[in-house]
Design brief:
Blueprint lengths: L2 H10 L8 H15 L6 H7 L3 E5 L4 E7 L7 E4 L10 E4 L2 H8 L5 H6 L4 E4 L1 H25 L7
Helix pairs in contact: 2-6
Amino acid sequence: MSAAVQAARDSAAESPTFSSAAEMREVLEKLLTEIDGDPEIGCPLNEAGTAYRLRCPDIDFVVNLAPDEDSDCELRWKFSDDVDWQPGLTMETGAATANRVLQGRENLAIAIARGKIEVSCDMRAALRFFELTRPVVYRYRDLIAREYPHLDLS
């Protein structure tokens, strides 16, 4: 087991987390649907031109996100590794850590430095992704507060 996954599992008992891969998929499907085409979030993610992968092995979850080739502002995603694109940034962590990072309660760069998230990436893709996460955090927090209060870390 990798150090990132073990660290994430160790902290899972301390933080609210997804009950299953199905719940994480439901939450992220809603989030991605909300930000798709949004001029402040979807468009910059699309314009970055990079595909991303998030994997949470502790609940057997994966999502792949990429720019939509037919649009300037839309995204495409798939909850599978069976995609026709290669991610420029892959992150692997536990579901509880992913929830904390998505809510902005744990800094992504620090979580990577501490080994809570393992990454493989093109460095430019990672730096660009870090820039783009702030508006996603606010949208995710709103979604959690509205529909998934058991995941809220406030």
